[in-house]
Specification:
The chain is an all-alpha fold. The chain has three helices and no strands. The N and C termini lie far apart (46 Å).
Length: 88
């Protein structure tokens, strides 16, 4: 599989030094940057999925005219938590 290059990144020398000071044994600056990109990507994807689920839930609630108060939701979550504690 071919790899693709990312654009070079210009940073202040202090930032580069700070990153180099926290690299783990055997870790390169390139690997650190790749991991940072992957983590940021995963966070953005999770955020987008969360928003999509929220929008879908809101649309479903409007369509069905079925809404739940925060107190109802918290009560149900408390019951689920209590039940899972019993199972342990």
């Amino acid at each position: 599989m071919k790899t693709a290059a990312m654009p070079s990144l210009r940073v202040e020398p202090e930032l580069r030094n700070a990153v180099e000071n926290v690299l783990q044994e055997g870790e390169t600056l390139s690997l650190f940057m790749e991991n940072a990109l992957r983590n940021a990507l995963a966070a953005r994807q999770a955020q987008q999925a969360f928003l999509a689920r929220g929008i879908a839930a809101a649309q479903e609630a409007r369509a069905s005219d079925e809404y739940y108060s925060a107190d109802q939701v918290l009560e149900e979550l408390d019951a689920m938590l209590a039940q899972s504690g019993e199972a342990l």
